[in-house]
Specification:
7-stranded mixed sheet; 33% strand; 6 helices
Amino acid sequence: MRYATFKIDGRQTYGAVRDDGVVDLGRRLSTSFPTLKSLVAAGWPQEVAAVARGPVDYTEAQISYLPPILDPAHIWCLALNYVEHHDEVQSAGRVQELPKQPALFMRWADTFTGHEHPLLHPGVSEQFDYEGELAVVIGKPGHKIPEANALEHVGGYTILNDGSVRDWQFHTRQITPGKNFYRTGSIGPWIVPRDDIPDVYSLGIKTTLNGQVVQNGTTRDMLHKIERFIAYASTILPLRSGDILATGTPSGVGFSRKPPLWMKVGDLCEISIEGIGTLSNRIEASQ
């Protein structure tokens, strides 16, 4: 099942997205589960799944997608988590060796937009790059989580575009500025529960720019696996329900190409992950 947060007729809600339409769970379950985050935290109760299989309320074309989790307490991101991506960054003279520990940075919620909403070209730079990633949504909260138990804390999976403003990213050794321009990233369209993904390390990740394949990787090539990521991040701060963990991008990013390939106003960037779906965003100019 696929669970999304969306707007319909000016009202914010969430629901189950099926091939035949959308079931408005927010309207039906507002007392017990007012948001999708509360549903993730509850571990996808069976009674909710039964409602999700009921009559549809809307066509998919009627809804406007929002980020699935609107108010995550933390958005943790992994840099250089695929060996071939590390190699291409190293060849560009940006790093020296593979990170022995997860290389973490943070993003904020308002740097992201939803599926089929525009990514905002920053204007102050032409170096606007794409990064297709698998994102983990935390269900069960925890602090100092052992690796052996880490996947028990995963509520589900979604897709993330870690849109990056490269020259701002490399102004200093701290990459935060280039990763946090307003609405330069996207997430969605929905969350797929953990149990609906039999093997999270066998998923293909493909990014296209204007229909051209620019990234084509697989989650089995992660350097630091999801269990290690969860254990490491939760040692620093307790993970909360609805937290987002972006697991890094495969090779093929724009700044490592010769010549570089940047996203421009009017471009269409799409990221597809097997078993989840496709996250699609056109590039518009920021105001």
